[in-house]
Amino acid sequence: MTEEDAVLPSADLGLLPGIAAEDHGGVTLCADTPWISACRSPETVGDFAAVVADYADRLWGAGVRPGAVVALVKSNHFDIQAIQCAVARIGALPALLSVTMEPADLVYCLKELQRPYLLIDTDGAAVLRPWQGQWGEVAARVLALTPEAAVAGAVELGESAPHRITRRSGSDRTLITHSSGTTGKPKLLVHTVDSLYAHVAPQIGVVQSLGSAGISAKCLSFVHVRMSSGLLTVLNTGLPFLGITSPDLPSVREALLRYRPEALEAQPNMFLRWEALARETPSPFSTVERYISSFDAIHPRTLRTLLEASDRPDPTFIQAYGQTETGPVTILMTTRSDLHERGRLNSRDVGTAFPGMEIRVVDDAGSPLPAGAPGHIEVRTPARAESMIGRAPLPGRETWWPMGDIGALGADGHVELLDRHVDQVLGVPSTLRAEDVLLDELPELAEVVIVSVEGTVTAVAATTDGKPVDEGRWQQARDAAELPRNTRVEYRPWDDFPLTGTMKVRRHRLLPHGAPG
Q1: Residue 106 belongs to a domain with what CATH number?
Q2: N or C terminus: fewer CB in 10 A for the chain?
Q3: CA–CA distance, 377 with 348 (Å, rounded to integer)
Q4: Conformation bin of residue 222: beta by default, left when phi > 0, alpha when psi is -120 to 50
Q5: pLDDT in tens for each of the 517 residues of the chain?
Q6: DSSP symbol at 75
Q7: pTM for the whole thing?
Q8: Residues 244, 219: contact at Cβ < 8 Å?
Q9: 282: cis peptide before it, omega within 30°?
C-alpha cells in the first residue's frame, strides 16, 4: 500500500456509527460484559449506533452543547467509545481520562481542561470522592451515568431531548486523550479530524489487505486513542468486533472461548500475563490467526508462546510502534514459520515505517546518524496530535518529532528500539533487550525490569511461584543478558509493580525495597 492508496474513514467519530449502521448494521459489535449505563447492550453495529444516538439525546437533555468539553471518568468498558461518539455527535469535545490514573493526576487533568462537564460512573465517583468539595472548581457540572453514581453534587444523566447533529471536518478538534504518564504527569493531547484520520488510514489498509472476516477482539484501555482509531477502522471496514473488558485471566478465558476470535489485540504486558492461558487445554487462543500489539515491543518469549498456542496453520503476530502523540509509525509482522526458520528473533526490531511516515535517528546535536548507529528516534507523520492542553504550541507537522526513545535505523529501514531515553541505565546498552534475554533464560520469571538504584544496576523481578530464582541460574541468565556482574536482583509480587492504565511499568516509581536477592 502506498501513501496515495491510503483509505480514509468515511466520516468523523460522531457520524460514522450511523453511516456504518446503514452499510453493515447486522455485523457483530459487542462487549463481553453488560453495558450498565446504556439503553441496551449492543450486539451489532446497528445496536451500537442506536446507543450512540440515545447517549447524545441524554447529553443534550443535560445541557451539553456544541463547543463544550466533556471529561469522561469511568470504569474500563467499550461503552466509553459509544459515549465518545455521542459527545462528538452533538458538537462537544470528548476528553477521555483513565479511571486508573492516580487521583491527584486526574484532578490535575480536570483543572487543565478548565471546568469541563464531568461524566462519571460509580468507579469515577469513588476515585474522585476525596475531591468532592472541589467539584465546583474543576467542573462546570457533574453528570452521573447511573443512579448509583449520582453522589452529592452530581446530576443523573437521565432526561432525553432530541439532539442536533454537528458535522466536523479537517482541522476541527474532535478528541482529547492523554499519554500514559509513564514518566510523569499525563499530557492531554488534542486530535483533529485530519490527525485522527491519519492514525486510521494505515489500519484500514492492513485490515483490507488481510481480508479478515472473523471477530476481532481487543482488550485495551478504552480511553486510549488507539481504541478510538480502532473503532473508526472497525466501523469503516465492517469488521466484526468484541471489546474485552478486563485483562484478568478468568474473564479473558471466558470471552475467548465464547466468541472464538480470529484476531486479538492487547497491550504487551497483558499478553505477558496471558502466557499461562496459552498452556491450557483447550487453548483459548486456538482460533487466533492474528495477534496485534502496540505501545511497546513484545517480549519474544511471549510472542513465541502465543503463536504456538494457535491451531491456525501459520498465525501472525503484528506489532506496531508509536505513541499517543503520533499514532502507529512502524509495523512488523512475524509468523510462526519465521520463528522456526530464523530461530531467535531480534527482539528489539519494531519493523518499518507505514506509508506516509518518515523516521530518522539523530545524535545529541540533531544530526542524522548512519545506518545501525544508536541515537534519538524522530518521526514526521500527519497523524501527530494538533496540540497539548496547557503546553506551548507544537511545531508544525513538517518538523521532526522526538519520540523520546533510543534506537537505531537499519539500512533495510527496520527500526531497532533500545530504550526509553529517561530509562537508560549506565553500563547497560539496552535495558529492554536485557529484560528480553532474562525472560527467555528464566521461564519462571513473570516480569523483570532493569533500573538504576544509587548507581547500581538492579533487576526488579516477579516470579510465577513467588520464589527467588536459583542463584546459579540467575548468574548464568545475568551473564547472557550482558548485565554487570554486580547487578542486584530484588523480588516483589507481580501485583506490586506500579502500572499505567495501559499496563506499562512506571519505572521511575519502581523503587526497590527490602534486601536484594
Answers
A1: 3.40.50.980
A2: C
A3: 14
A4: alpha
A5: 444 445 667 789 999 999 999 999 999 999 999 999 999 999 999 999 999 999 999 999 999 999 999 999 999 999 999 999 999 999 999 999 999 988 889 999 999 999 999 999 999 999 988 888 888 889 999 999 998 888 777 889 989 999 999 999 889 999 999 986 655 678 999 999 999 999 998 889 888 888 777 999 999 999 999 999 999 999 999 999 999 999 999 999 999 999 999 999 999 889 999 999 999 989 999 999 999 998 777 888 999 999 999 999 999 999 999 998 999 999 999 999 998 877 667 778 999 999 889 999 999 999 999 999 999 999 999 999 999 999 989 999 999 999 999 999 999 999 999 998 888 888 899 999 999 999 999 999 999 999 988 888 999 999 999 999 999 999 999 999 999 999 999 999 988 887 776 667 777 677 544 433 3
A6: -
A7: 0.91
A8: yes
A9: yes
Spatial CA neighbour of 265 closest among 303, 318, 229, 313: 318
Residue 89 is classified by DSSP as H
Cα 98 to chain centroid, rounded = 11
Cα-based angle 433, 435, 439 (whole degrees, multiple of 5) = 120
Return d(Cα 381, Cα 195) in angstroms, integer: 9
> What CATH number does the domain containing 275 carry?
3.40.50.12780
Distance CA 17, CA 20 (A): 5
Residues with Cβ < 8 Å from 235, sequence gap 6 or more? Answer: 9, 16, 17, 19, 20, 45
Range of the domain at 454: 431-509
Whether residues 380 and 499 share a domain: the answer is no
Query: What domain count does the chain have?
Result: 3
Question: What's the chain's length in residues?
Answer: 517
Q: Is the same domain home to 436 and 486?
A: yes
Quick one: which of 495, 486, 497, 489 has its CA closest to 514?
489
Positive or negative torsion for Cα 148, 154, 157, 161: positive
State whether residue 359 is helix, strand or coil: strand
Residues 261 and 395 in one domain: yes
The answer to whether the beta carbons of residues 49 and 67 sit under 8 Å apart is: no
Residue 241 forms part of a structural domain: no
